[in-house]
Structure formats: structure tokens, C-alpha cells
Amino acid sequence: MAIRFTPAERWRLTGFALSAAGAMLFAVKGVLIKLIYVYPIDSTSLLAVRMMLSLPVFAMVGVIEWRRRPFDKRPDIRSIGLAAVVGIIGYHVSSWLDFEGLATLEAQTERLILFTYPFLVLLFGRVLLKHQLRLHALVGASMSYAGLIVMFGANPSRLTPMMLGGAALVLTAAATFALYQLFAREMILRCGPGLFSAIALSAAGVTLILQFLATHSISVLALPPHAWLLISYLAIFSTIIPTFMMSAGTARIGAQGTAIISTLSPLVTIVLAIVVLGEPFGLPEAAGTALVIGGVGLFSWIESRRPAPLG
After folding, report:
1. CA 154 to CA 215: how far, in whole Å?
2. pTM for this one?
3. What's the CA gap between 193 and 242, in Å, rounded?
4. Are 36 and 227 in contact (CB under 8 A)?
5. Side-chain half-sphere of 299: how many Cα atoms within 13 Å?
6. What is the mean pLDDT of each run of 10 residues along the chain (311 residues)?
7. Exposed, middle or buried, 248 (CB in 10 Å: 0-12/13-18/19+)?
8. Neighbours of 40 (CB within 10 A)
9. Cβ-contact 279, 142 below 8 angstroms
10. Distance between CA atoms of 97 and 237, rounded to whole angstroms?
């Protein structure tokens, strides 16, 4: 007997499917970057090319979103400028730190460090905006950071200055992305999610390309065809497509539902890092991964069950 779903159930199931697919595509990013780093390209050049390929799509979406809005519902110049600044923090500064850290850090470790950013959102919310810090958030954060300590402390011989430097860069990337998430909420209310994403990503794309042009020669982009193929995959399948998938999924199941689904992301990265890159994975890595994902998953699950604030 065929299972029948109501339109509302199909809507939510589609949201879960879109969010899951988007999270898994984002998870491939670290592995693709490690494969691209085999070729003579640095983080600034790679980010610039990624945005050169992605920017036309985001700019087009921005134009469409702008034109479909009634005149009195369009954000003012100040809101557009603030959205651009927030986007530069989240998609230029944070991405550059992340890509730079990946040059010396394993892909699976990078993904787990980045995965802890929701706790940094809460910390900055408490420090900057006086938000309440709840017990389940502290428990989840303690579990997750304990997991990172287990992973790093199990084999001290692996803790080279280069690896620790990469971990510090990725942790700073998580912190700047947490700031982006904190301030993006207000900008999304002003601009709407589609227009905000287009403004934020377009602004970051422009500044990344300008950074590249100011510091590099165009000749560094003379790469083998296989490198360009990998970079194209990075731009299309780990940037453009999952960005819109996650947005569409969030519109159907909400931010907390998307956060829970996103716990798939580190698992996908770990499997690919082991299979494709040959990264080590033993008992300490398994225990650390379980603690990190368990901490974030516990926090996201409890947050999803809290009633939404009124008005």
C-alpha cells in the first residue's frame, strides 16, 4: 500500500531532503580544497576564482529579488551597506581564514572545528548583546570542545606548529562566521533571506577578487585542466547549489530543523577524508567526533523544541 502524504507533509519532507543534500554538498568542500592544494595555488587565488565563477549567479539572484519586491519593501542604502559588510565578514574574512587553515590541517578536523560555531554565536550574543546563556548550550559546548581536546591530545606528536597554526586559523574562521550569523539575523529581517544572501555573497566576491588583483599576478591562474575542473566543482557543487538548497530547506523546516540535519555534514567529510585523502581515523578521532557531533546535536535538538518567542 502506497504511503500518502498531505501537501504540508510533502512540503516539510522536501525541506528535509533539500537541507540534507545541501549539507552533504557543503561537506565535500574541505576534501575538494585539499585536492586542489596539490596544485600551485594559494588560498587567496582559490577563493578569488571560486567567486569569479559564483558571482554572476549571486548578482543575478540579487537583481531578481530586488525587482520582485514592491518599491516600499526594498531595503534602504544603509541596510544594503550593512548587509554587504556582514557578508564580507562571513564570506570573505571567515572563508579566507578557513581556506588558509586547510593548507596545514586535515579536512575532517577542519570540519569539526567549524561545526562548533553555534556555541560561539551564543557566546558573542551574551557578550555583545546581553543574550541569555542557557544550561543546555553550556553542556553542548563542553561536550564539543572536549571532543576536540580528545582528538588533538590523543597523539601529541601530530601537534606540529603548522597543524596548531591551521587549527587556530580555522577556529578564528568559526568565530568570524559566528559574528556573521549573529548580525545576519537583523539584516535578513530588513532585506529578506534571498536578497540578503545575494548582497552578502556578491560583496564578499567583489572584495575577494580585489584582494587577489592587488596581491597576485593573473599568471598564477595558469593551472592544469584538472585543477580547473576541481575548482569548477568547488564553485558549483560546494558553493552555488548548496547555498540555494539550504535556503530553500530552511524556508520549509526552519533554521533549527536545518541545524539538526546539518549534523550529517561532518560525517560526510570524515568518510570522504578517509577514503579520498587517506587521512587517519582511529579510536581518538571516533570518540572526539562523537562528542563534537553529540554536543552540537543535543543543543540543536533542545533549541528546536523550545517554543518560538511571541510577537
Report:
1. 39
2. 0.87
3. 15
4. yes
5. 27
6. 72 85 91 96 96 94 93 92 95 96 93 87 86 82 89 78 93 93 85 90 96 96 95 94 84 71 84 92 89 86 62 41
7. middle
8. 11
9. no
10. 21
